[in-house]
Protein: YncI copper-binding domain-containing protein
Amino acid sequence: MGLVVAAVPALLVATATTASAHVSVNPDSAPAGGYSKLTFKVPNESNSASTTKLQVFLPIDHPLEAVSVQPHAGWTYEVKKTKLTTPLTDHDGNKVTQAVSEVTWTADSATSAIRSGEFDEFNISVGPLPDSGTLTFKTLQTYSDGSVARWIDEDESGEKPAPTLEVAGETVGAGHHEDSGDEGHAADTEEAEAASKTPLVLSIVAIVIAVAGAGLGVIRRRS
Structure:
């Protein structure tokens, strides 16, 4: 009976691990109108094959004007563009007639492929993001044995959910890539001031404890 009870938690852990081991995008939400760095986390689910290729399909129903790829050591990437039915207008007023529709990373060798029990991460920068909605990045993960994991389910409860990015919240101005420098500087200043006060506070506490200890010693001797 004890063996059966002990096996139940192990089974639950194994099931949870398998269910959560899917290609995902981080962050999973971002403010409208801004730019965002997207990191695709790719775990290897096969016990006998390595992941050798990753294809990420960008939504054309919400085309992204600017897409750039961060080079990944040991992998080669390829970018494909699609002609837009309705051209975009960039912040300079220029017409954008094509948008990136696919980014493919391919391992240069077996050494750089993602082996069993491993994961890897691939980065792109995109923007400006639309005013609202969900961006779905359907993804194909190809293994060394020729099998393909199709992360294309738009329903998150599906067996192979596609990575999704929720766009909502306060709109960020076009061309805004990062948090305000003034806000960041203010936060750094507050942290520095707090850090500088810490030694003083500790010194005062130490003195109070020492004085209290000395007073207690005198009282004991008198008693």
